[in-house]
Write a structure and sequence with these properties.
The protein is 36% helix and 13% strand. It is of the alpha/beta class. The chain has one domain (33-244). Helix 7 packs across helix 8. The chain is globular, with a radius of gyration of 17 Å. The N and C termini lie far apart (40 Å).
Length: 265
């Protein structure tokens, strides 16, 4: 039983293992796992200049805004937050375990290209270096709290709540893997604060993770790959759930078994 439990935890934490920090700043983190799940190749990068560089090494809770197509810059920090608060950007994404700010930007770029409009992302982790800590949080803290409909402390969730409280009314919040759980966590916090009415314009979409949500959302839809053993093992709620046959956990179109987002937003 102990071995089975450890294997279950490992499956939630990562599929690639923990990578050491890259050379340079102590805050630099690698992109091994996030390159499996998110299309980093869509971020502009020319001799260390572009979206890939500008989205690197940002702390969890930081907001990023990317534009569709080829762009050599992005917005981040206070500028990006204001764009969301003022409803200039009305789609927000949150990535899963193993992602850093680059994975967040890549997921946002994927969605931006599909919608042909700017998309915001809230950074959820430090990439492979924080895989164990975020995976353990998801398994030991996130799952039981989501099932109970209670809130757990999480910087990305808190940022989403703060954006709503400051006037943001996103029409879409999209979570992948643990990012779905962290998004739902924010909604449960708003429920605790009796602010469910702030959610009435939001469609919540999850990929690779089934979660519970409170009342108040405009709509709620979940997708999981038929061959996504990681997501199927870690989901806490499969109602509603749309199974995409033959697909896995990745959203990266470069991966043959990725779940396509086009037509599902």
């Amino acid at each position: 039983m102990v071995l089975l439990f450890l294997l279950m935890l490992l499956s939630f934490s990562c599929e690639m293992g923990i990578a050491p920090p890259e050379k340079g700043s102590a805050t630099e983190r690698s992109s091994v796992s996030e390159s499996m799940y998110y299309p980093l190749h869509l971020l502009s990068n020319w001799w260390g200049w572009g979206e890939l560089t500008q989205s690197s090494y940002l702390s969890p809770g930081t907001v990023i805004v990317v534009r569709p197509g080829t762009s050599w810059s992005l917005d981040k920090g206070t500028t990006a937050e204001n764009m969301v608060k003022n409803n200039q950007v009305r789609t927000i994404v949150m990535a899963g375990v193993g992602s850093s700010s680059r994975g967040t930007a890549a997921m946002a770029k994927l969605i931006a290209n599909s919608l042909n409009q700017p998309v915001a992302g809230i950074v959820t982790g430090w990439g492979d270096y924080s895989t164990t800590s975020t995976g353990m949080e998801g398994y030991f803290v996130g799952r039981p709290n989501n099932e109970a409909g209670t809130y757990y402390d999480n910087v990305a969730s808190a940022k989403l709540v703060a954006l709503y409280n400051a006037g943001a009314r996103p029409v879409r919040v999209i979570g992948h893997s643990k990012g779905a759980m962290d998004s739902a966590n924010a909604f449960f916090r708003m429920n605790q604060l009796n602010r469910n009415s702030q959610l009435n314009q939001t469609k919540f979409i999850t990929f690779g993770m089934g979660v519970f949500v409170p009342s108040g959302l405009n709509s709620f839809v979940q997708y999981i790959g038929g061959s996504d053993s990681l997501g199927q093992h870690n989901m806490v709620n499969d109602n509603p759930m749309i199974v995409v046959p033959g697909r896995g956990h990745s959203l990266n179109p470069a991966m043959s078994m990725h779940v396509p987002v086009t037509g599902r937003l």
